[in-house]
Specification:
Elements lengths: L1 H17 L7 E6 L2 E10 L2 E12 L2 E5 L5 H14 L4 E5 L5 H4 L2 H6 L3 E4 L1 H9 L6 E2 L4 E6 L2 E6 L11 E4 L4 E5 L18 H14 L5 E4 L9 H13 L2
Parallel strand pairs: 4-5, 5-6, 6-7, 11-12
Antiparallel strand pairs: 1-2, 2-3, 3-4, 8-9, 9-10, 10-11
Helix pairs in contact: 6-7
Length: 241
Amino acid sequence: MKNAFLFLLIPLFVHFQGFCQLPPVKITSLVPNHYVHTTYQVYQNNPFPSNGLIVSTSAGIILVDTGWGLEQTELLLEQIEQKLKQKVVLCIVTHAHEDRIGGVKAFQQRGIKIIGTPLTAQKTVAQGLPAPEGILPQDTTFQVGTTTVQTYFPGAGHTDDNIVVYFPDSKILVGGCLIKSYVAMGIGNIADANLKTWRQSVDNVRKKFPDITFVIPGHEKWDNLSSFSRTIELVDKNQNK
């Protein structure tokens, strides 16, 4: 009987050993009215961070990218409501992977405008998710309240729909997954990547926005502009394999 009981416990033990508790959603102040949002999923058996940006404007809050999946996005929106006490009015998504668009339903259920490029919208639908509004041109500038927002498609890299988002008043660039963190040890998911054009796309971003003070990569640390050169190192390393 004792042996039978232990036999029943074995699969439970294996299950709990494999369970990984995600850290809390984080909102980190960057400069006045600008915050990095960090959500998590399990990657290679460990919690892995995904970054986006929150910008408080005179007309409400802009988010760049959803949280990583629907549940993390719900938690993120709750944190924004509790901590920043301002209405979210817009979300801009930088490409059609789950760490960027996985929370699209949370915005649509709340009636919050969520936008991307036509190609990102098309790719989102192909994954069985409701699409963001595919209205962004390849290079455009617009206002939310008194805040200027610029979105730019520099060419294919991590994906063929990856865009970056720049806030000229604060000189903050959200690189999404086109830009790897300066601490990144690997290039990550390249299932939809174009390694031949990725380096040029990074160079296009640097030329387009020469006065950046912060670049927010899609994952990991953001406090060092050497993320650009690290991205190119990783792309070159993978091209030569």
